[in-house]
Structure formats: C-alpha cells, structure tokens
Amino acid sequence: MEQQLNELYHPLILEHNQHPRHYEKHPEAGVILDAYNSLCGDKFKLYLDIKEGRVVQASFSGYGCAVSKAATSVLVDKIQGKTLEEVKILLGDYFAATKTEHKLAIDIDPDLLAFAAAKKFPGRLKCAVLSWEAMEEYLQRR
Predict the structure, then answer these.
(1) pLDDT classification of 28: cutoffs 50, 70, 90
(2) How far apart (Å, rounded) are the C-alpha atoms in residues 10 and 117?
(3) How far apart are CA 76 and CA 68, in angstroms?
(4) Could you report the per-residue pLDDT of 73-98, keeping only the tens digit for each?
(5) Which of 36, 53, 86, 87 gives the lowest tally of CB atoms within 10 Å of its CB?
(6) What are φ and ψ of residue 37, in 5° steps?
(7) Is the pTM here over 0.90, yes or no?
(8) Which of 70, 79, 66, 63 is nearest to 29 (CA)?
(9) 3-state DSSP percent of the chain in helix, strand and coil, to 5
C-alpha cells in the first residue's frame, strides 16, 4: 500500500500542489468554468481567454486536495497557447492515462502520466479528473 501511495503522490504532483502554475483569479476572463466535487469539497474556478480558437490565457483559483490542485495546475499550464483542437487531444491523453487500464502510447506527455496512479484509488480518481472534466464539458457544449 505504501508503494501505491508513493505512486499517487508523484514528485510532480507534490511540486504542482506546493507551487501551482497560473494560480490567480482572472474575473474578467471570457470564460469561467466551475469544477466542484460535492463529495470532498474540492472547488476550483478556471479562467480562460480564448481568441480565434486558441487559449491565449488560462489561470485558476480555489482549493482542494494535493491531487486535485496539482491536476488543475498541470491542466492550466498545458493549455496555454494551445488551439481548442490541441486541448481536446490533451484531454484524451490525460483521460487515457487516468481512466484506462490499456497500455498507453509512448508519446503521452510524462507530466500527464504522473496522475496515472489515481486509477488505483477510486476515491482519488475524481480528484485527478475534476478540472479536466470541467474543461471537457465546456468543449462539448461549445
């Protein structure tokens, strides 16, 4: 069990939890998404500025456990400057890493693979995908 916990709290997760990227409120953003887990209370706002199909600025605020905060930090960091089509591919890679048991493609970003251990902890999986699912829902509605 200790080995599994060490996998869950990968050094990248600890780093992004302690030093989140783009952690700031941006209330004038063109798009504001809410990511809320009613079971544990994790709650984040994602602030996005999208111009001509590209994320030109992204940030977040809120609170949650180490896994959810780190996952949100990685999401916001990775989508900076990406087209919405590139964001969809990124989301697919992340969900493949966190939700499936299949052998993963070699070219998946190693930062995304840091969250793969969450699938071994059903109670923590929601933490790992919370903000990513909010982004996916936004893109599906768009």
Answers:
(1) very high
(2) 9
(3) 12
(4) 999 999 999 999 999 999 999 999 99
(5) 53
(6) -110, 105
(7) yes
(8) 79
(9) 50, 20, 30
Task: Assess if CATH 3.90.1010.10 describes domain 2-141.
Answer: yes
Residue spans per domain, the chain: 2-141
Q: State how far the Cα of 21 lies from the Cα of 17, in Å rounded to an integer.
A: 9
Cα atoms in the Cβ-side hemisphere of radius 13 Å centred on 57: 12
- Extract the tokens encoding 92: 């697919």
Q: How far apart are CA 1 and CA 103, in angstroms?
A: 23
* Residue 71: predicted pLDDT: 98
Instruction: Identify the three-state secondary structure at position 50.
Output: strand
